Amino acid sequence: MDHVTHLKCQICEKEYSPDAIDYICPDHGDEGIVDVCYDYERIAGRISKESLAADGNYSIWRYKPLLPVAPDAEVPPLAIGWTPLYGAPRLAAKLGLEQLWVKDDGRLPTASFKDRASAVAVVKAREQKAEIITTASTGNAAAALSGICASVGQANVIFVPESAPPAKIAQLLVYDSTVMLVKGSYDDAFELCLETAAEYGWYNRNTGYNPYMTEGKKTAAYEICEQLSWEAPDCIFVSVGDGCIIGGLHKGLKDLMALGWIRKMPRLIGVQAEGSSYMFEAWKNGEDILTKAPVSGITVADSISAGLPRDRIKALAAVTETDGAYVQVSDDEILAAIPALARGSAVFAEPAGAAAYAGLVKAAGDGLVRRDERIVVLNTGNGLKDVKSTMTAVGMAGSVPWHIEPNLAAVREAISKTGILEGK
Ligand SMILES: *Cc1c(COP(=O)(O)O)cnc(C)c1O
Ligand SMILES: [Zn+2]
């Protein structure tokens, strides 16, 4: 791992050797999230745009020389990464835009973006020969860790709030994780998981604690730029809970700038739910994120419910350093975005994924994006993760099925009422 030079505390900028610490800066406790720093000259000798063009490995591991793992590290067999980037001309036209793409990470093996991070966690844990890996999660990071552990037969213990959607809990159980349903919020589950990991000495995958999660997440930025033939987009819209994904995108883009593979830094637009808008508030009001009190975190978009975003330092930098913005959307706007995105691009997102599109709708209305900008919306989770919210959303959109008797006369009657023959 001679390409990783050091780990740097985001607060005091103290540098540590990767062998010296596993997670945070000891001087700054849980807030002291470190950044993984690289020797880009060395990396440039091992990977290039040209070598990638000739590489048939279409997973996150095509970028292995840019990841904090040994060149010969064994990686999980699941196909993680290289999710489709769909052009979305009908959605673009509807919003008065010229070029819009939707990247669908709902297509990853456990159906959320979190597979990118959990894959790296499993490699790092096995590097240390960890017996047990643990994480707290609103559901998706847990499902991702659970599924990737199943792919290599790795024991794991998961902490999720009892209120997590049933599909996510089903994923944990089917992959045979040991599951702790915490009678409390995600923040309660997070604290409890940290305590438990310390107590038993387990490998800790927690978001906004384990520095390597950002590194897994940055692969989405590489893919977006490579899929656009290394012509970076102008804006990327992504929903924000703990802020690790937006920080990861920023990291990936900074890597590409350092390598000279892209010429311009895209603006990162973080989208938050009104009930869980810590980052939006802090950014808008210029508040100090080391002292700002937690918010309630209540939203229908469970995956971005975070009263105290764990990766807030990186999440704020991602927006301020790219001349981006935070946008907040209501739960109703998020729910409306689910069918809108599905009907306009065929990408079926869970509420937190659709929130990114809701943010674009709002930004387009507010003039935050220009007509001629090249825009990417990142869907972070599959709609089947939360069928209940989808049913609420389609109900709000006025979409109802026809309950009919099993005969043609009943079909005729229903068809005449639908208006479909009149082109409605
Ligand atoms: C985790 C998650 C997010 C938010 O990511 P953070 O790193 O917590 O900001 C967004 N959407 C989905 C579907 C997620 O699972
Ligand atoms: Zn520090």
Label this structure with key terms.
424 residues, binds zinc ion, binds pyridoxal-5'-phosphate, six-stranded mixed beta sheet, four-stranded parallel beta sheet, alpha/beta, 39% helix, Rossmann fold
Secondary structure elements and pairings:
Blueprint: E1 4-9, E2 15-16, E3 34-38, H1 40-44, H2 49-53, E4 85-87, H3 89-95, E5 99-104, H4 115-127, E6 132-136, H5 140-152, E7 155-161, H6 166-174, E8 178-182, H7 186-200, E9 203-204, H8 212-217, H9 219-227, E10 235-239, H10 244-259, E11 267-273, H11 278-285, H12 312-320, E12 325-329, H13 331-345, H14 351-366, E13 374-379, H15 387-396, H16 408-418
Helix pairs in contact: 4-5, 5-6, 9-10, 10-12, 13-14, 13-15
Bound molecules: pyridoxal-5'-phosphate and zinc ion (ZN).
The site of pyridoxal-5'-phosphate has 19 residues, from helix 10 and helix 14.
Approximately how much helix is present in the residues?
25-40%
Largest sheet: 6 strands, mixed
Tell me the distance between the termini: 60 Å
Helix-strand makeup class:
alpha/beta
